[in-house]
Write a structure and sequence with these properties.
single chain, alpha/beta, 6-stranded parallel beta sheet
């Protein structure tokens, strides 16, 4: 029997480690084992002591000084946290206009990419980045394997990544297509300049995160307890190799009433060690099931008439078809998202929207616990709205919504109907936003970023 191992990057050290496990292994003739992701066309640059509230401006200046041309190049900014990715992408348009000028025609071609996004949204963002609808992308390291964008010529690390290997892998994405690289004006004499922004506090934080990423025996036992309590609400705690239980990735952080990527990672590490200790058997990682309160489904068939729309009725009928016959000994029922979508013929967002409507009307009860933590960026917005005493200025989002609906209704004559195009609705919405909200007085614009340390 012949075994083939494939890798796009392999060093002499890695090859020697594999050789210990697989004596006699050989490489294909001509294989380059001295691998360096930082090729001759890449040059690393660092800027130290850059405070958080200055980093977006520093990035925009880096793009301008480097001659960024959106028709020839893409830019990617690697950011460590999902929240910061979204915050930066939201504010960057204003920063680009400040640095490039108000007429910057690509200031709004900015996107965000991280693992917390829905798979369809990630795919959509990736395609837009590839085709040029998005030219500047803020991303976590979830933007990884299998994502080949050949014309990335500007790479920034918003802060130092967690490991040196991540850093090398990420800057190694620069200028992978030689022809496109040369067309954009980059070569070995004028290499692509990557940029990493740092301050002393960044490295102290990385050190803390490294310590926090280690897991103790106490934490492994805690993960086991959390998983057991969760499974006990769905099925008896007994060995079962036929019917697996889908366990949410964020179960550990939800139990602690937090939104915390580090706790989610620790939960996965704990599950890994529990499997090594033969306490559990892991399957594959994916978002697979939705949980329902079983008692709320007993009379669901009689409740369908209360459904507010056709999608809600389709979702309820799919649930009825998937429900097990007879009584269920456990209070929680898990149903496959894939099966619900297949039977209802609804897209993921429409399925969730339909289920939420039914939940809010008391037709059924979803059992998921969701912990929402406002970002520092949004906290500024919430506090601002709470402190406003003038009722005419409170609740700007609601006032925009009412204005938007009024414009739609005013445009339709009495006793008549009308189909609206997306562009017309966009114009109504923009008019409502302009009328209701004075952007110069809102604290969550760019200057609010100074508090995002």
């Amino acid at each position: 029997m012949c075994k083939l191992l494939f890798s796009t990057t392999i060093s002499e050290q890695v090859f020697e480690e594999i050789s210990v496990l697989m004596p006699g292994i050989t490489t294909v003739e001509g294989t380059e084992k001295i691998y360096n992701p930082v090729r001759d066309h890449i040059q690393m640059t660092f800027r130290h002591d850059v405070e958080m509230d200055k980093r977006l401006e520093e990035i925009a200046t880096y793009l301008k000084d480097g001659g960024f041309n959106p028709s020839l190049s893409r830019a990617i900014i690697f950011v460590k946290s999902r929240k910061r990715v979204e915050e930066c992408a939201m504010v960057m348009t204003d920063t680009m206009k400040e640095v490039f000028g108000e007429n910057c025609d690509f200031a709004d071609k900015i996107g965000a990419f991280h693992a917390g996004m829905d798979a369809e949204d990630r795919k959509d963002t990736y395609e837009k980045y590839k085709t040029g609808e998005i030219v500047i992308l803020f991303a976590t390291k979830a933007f990884g394997m299998g994502m080949d964008i050949p014309d990335i010529h500007f790479i920034v690390h918003y802060s130092p990544p967690g490991t040196f290997e991540d850093f090398l892998q990420e800057i190694g994405r620069a200028g992978r297509n030689e022809n496109l690289r040369l067309k954009a004006g980059f070569n070995n004499d004028r290499p692509i300049q990557t940029l990493c922004l740092t301050r002393k506090a960044d490295f102290a934080r990385l050190k803390d995160q490294l310590h926090n990423s280690r897991i103790s025996w106490h934490e492994v036992k805690e993960v086991q307890t959390v998983a057991k309590n969760y499974i006990a609400g769905i099925k008896p705690l007994e060995t079962d190799t036929e019917l697996p239980v889908a366990v949410p990735f964020n179960l550990y952080s939800v139990e602690n009433l937090l939104v915390d990527d580090e706790l989610d990672n620790k939960f996965r590490i704990g599950l890994y060690w529990l499997e090594r200790l033969e306490r559990i058997k892991l399957g594959y990682f994916t978002i697979t099931h939705i949980e329902f309160d079983y008692k709320s489904l007993i009379y669901l068939e009689n409740q369908i008439s209360r459904c507010p729309d056709d999608n809600s009725r389709k979702a309820c009928r799919a649930i009825l078809e998937l429900m097990p016959k007879g009584s269920l000994p456990n209070p929680v029922l898990q149903l496959s998202i894939a099966s619900l979508r297949s039977l209802s013929k609804l897209s993921l967002d429409k399925l969730f929207a339909a289920l939420l409507k039914c939940h809010s009307l008391g037709i059924l009860k979803l059992n998921q616990n969701i912990v929402i933590e406002p970002t520092k960026f949004r906290r500024e917005e919430v506090n601002y709205c709470r402190e406003i005493e003038d009722n005419k200025k409170k609740y700007p989002a609601l006032r925009v919504l009412f204005s938007f609906v009024s414009k739609i209704m005013d445009s339709v004559p009495l006793t008549d109907s009308k189909l609206f195009e997306g562009e017309e609705l966009d114009e109504f919405l923009q008019e409502s936003i302009t009328e209701i909200i004075d952007y110069d007085k809102l604290p969550w614009e760019k200057r609010g970023m100074k508090n995002l340390n």
